[in-house]
Amino acid sequence: MAATRAQVATSAGKTVELGFGSNTISVMIRANQSEAASGNVEYVPDENGDDCVAVVSNLGKRYTAEGALLAEQTAPEKGDVLTLGTTKFIVEESTITRTATVCRISMTLYANTANAWTSA
């Protein structure tokens, strides 16, 4: 496993986050990854029609990752559970693209903050 990259100072004295951090996805070598918070927000208006209460539910996080599938791995399918760091994610989507050189994989993983996914 490659060493975790450190932050690098820029000319303005700022630091930026590099790479994927220490988390790995055991079935792939990541080429790119995006992260987004997910959840539902419902606004309840008062008598004047102004939003006065926000009900937040179903909080979680969603990762989309693309990369090369490792030779010794079976491609994960929708509904499988993968671990990223210490968090268990359910596979929402998994697409395999076979080219002349390498087998590419694209996955969307989801973890709900209130629940922990377990394998069937």
Your description of this structure?
The chain is mostly beta strands. Helix content is 0%, strand content 56%. The chain contains no helices and seven strands. The relative contact order is 0.21. The model has no long low-confidence stretch (mean pLDDT 85).
TL;DR?
By secondary structure, the protein is mainly β. Helices cover about 0% and strands about 55% of the residues.
Helices and strands in order:
Blueprint: E1 8-9, E2 15-16, E3 28-45, E4 51-69, E5 81-84, E6 87-98, E7 103-112
Antiparallel strand pairs: 1-2, 3-4, 4-7, 5-6, 6-7
Question: Can you tag this structure with a few keywords?
Answer:
120 residues; mainly beta; 7 strands; 5-stranded antiparallel beta sheet
